[in-house]
Design brief:
Helix content is about 40%, strand content about 25%. By secondary structure, it is α/β, with parallel strands linked by helices. Strands 3, 4, 5, 6, 7, 8, 9, 10, 11 and 12 form a 10-stranded mixed beta sheet that branches. α1 (about 5-15) packs across α3 (about 30-45), α1 (about 5-15) packs across α4 and α6 (about 105-115) packs across α10. The longest helix is centred in the first third of the chain and has 18 residues, at about 60-75. The protein is elongated, with a radius of gyration of 35 Å.
C-alpha cells in the first residue's frame, strides 16, 4: 500500500465526489478512480458505494477514514518532529541581578530573555555586586549585572547604564529646595550602606566626599538600605543614592527623606554586564554574547 493511496482515499471521502476530489488533488478523475479501486482490491474491501449521482462511504470506508487521517497526520508531522529532535537542547543559564536595578534596564533583560529563548532559559540570581562578580568568575553564573568598577582581568565588561546620584537628606531640613551643595552638608554625617552590600564605587565616592570637606561618618552593620534611611530621617545625616524617581532605590525612602541633586558635585553610578572572556570568543556563550551586544547597544543614561 502506498501513502498516495491513502491521500486519494481521504480526499474522496471528504468530498464524496470523484471530480471534486480530483480537482483538489490536481489530477484527472479517471486515474483517481482507478487508484481507489487498486486500494479496495489490496484491502479486499469496498470503500465507496458509487452511483451515477452519489458517492457514499461503506462501513469499511467509515472505519478506514480515521485510521487513514491519523497515519497521514503522523507522516505530515515528520519534518517538524525531526527538527525538534535534532535541534540543540535548551540550556538553563543564570544572570546575576544586584539590588535596585532600574526598570529600563530590567526591560532590556526581559528582551534578552525573549531573544535567546529558543536556545536558553535565562533565570535571574540576586546578590551583591562583589558576590556576583565572584560567581561569574567561578562559572556559577553565565552573566551578571554589577555596579562598576570591577577589577577582574578574566571578565569582559559592557557598560549598560549610567545613573546620576543625589543627596539623600532629611526632608524637613531642606523643604522647598531643588538642590543642595556639599558645603551645606559639611556638618552632616555621611551614612554609608553596610560594607557587605556596598558597591566598590561607593568606596571611591567616600574618598571624594572626604576630599571635599565631608568628614563625619556613620558606619552601619547588619542592616540594609532601609536602615540608612532610618538614620537620615531622624538625625543630621545624609547619604547618596539614585536621583531618578523610577529607581527602585526610592522604595526605601521614609516620609521625612528626600533626594536632591548636588549643586556642585556630579556623582554617577555605572552598571555593567559582565561575563568570562574565555566563554565568549569561541566559547559556549559566543552566540549569547552576540545577542547581548545587540540588545543592550548604547548604555542607558538617567
Amino acid at each position: 500500500m502506498e501513502m498516495l493511496h491513502l491521500r486519494y482515499f481521504v480526499a474522496v471521502a471528504e468530498e464524496l465526489n470523484f471530480s471534486a476530489a480530483a480537482r483538489k488533488l490536481h489530477m484527472a478523475a479517471s486515474p483517481l478512480s482507478q487508484r481507489i479501486k487498486d486500494l479496495e482490491h489490496e484491502l479486499g474491501q469496498q470503500l465507496f458505494d458509487r452511483s451515477t449521482h452519489h458517492v457514499t462511504l461503506t462501513p469499511a470506508g467509515y472505519a478506514l477514514l480515521p485510521i487513514a487521517r491519523d497515519i497521514l497526520e503522523q507522516v505530515n508531522s515528520i519534518p517538524w518532529r525531526l527538527r525538534e529532535a535534532t535541534k540543540p537542547r535548551r540550556s538553563t543559564l543564570f544572570l546575576g541581578m544586584p539590588a535596585g536595578v532600574h526598570p529600563d534596564l530590567r526591560e532590556r533583560v526581559n528582551e534578552l530573555a525573549r531573544r535567546c529563548g529558543d536556545r536558553y532559559e535565562l533565570k535571574r540570581w540576586p546578590g551583591t555586586s562583589a558576590d556576583l562578580v565572584a560567581a561569574v568568575h567561578d562559572g556559577k553564573l553565565a552573566l551578571s549585572l554589577v555596579r562598576l568598577p570591577i577589577a577582574d582581568p578574566a571578565l569582559d565588561v559592557l557598560t549598560v547604564m549610567s545613573e546620576r546620584l543625589g543627596a539623600v537628606v532629611p526632608a524637613d531640613r531642606f523643604a522647598g529646595r531643588d538642590s543642595v551643595s556639599l558645603a551645606e552638608l559639611s556638618e552632616f554625617a555621611y551614612v554609608a550602606s553596610p560594607e557587605e552590600t556596598r558597591p566598590a564605587y561607593f568606596e571611591q565616592l567616600d574618598q571624594q566626599l572626604t576630599s571635599r570637606g565631608i568628614k563625619k561618618r556613620i558606619r552601619l552593620t547588619n542592616t540594609g538600605y532601609g536602615g540608612v534611611t532610618e538614620i537620615i530621617s531622624s538625625e543630621k545625616a545624609f547619604s547618596v543614592s539614585m536621583l531618578d524617581e523610577r529607581s527602585p532605590m526610592h522604595g526605601y525612602r521614609l516620609d521625612n527623606v528626600t533626594v536632591l541633586p548636588f549643586a556642585d558635585f556630579d556623582p554617577q553610578l555605572e552598571t555593567g554586564l559582565i561575563w568570562r572572556a574565555d566563554r565568549a570568543d569561541g566559547g559556549d556563550l559566543e552566540e549569547l554574547i552576540g545577542i547581548v551586544r545587540d540588545v543592550f547597544g548604547e548604555p542607558i543614561a538617567h
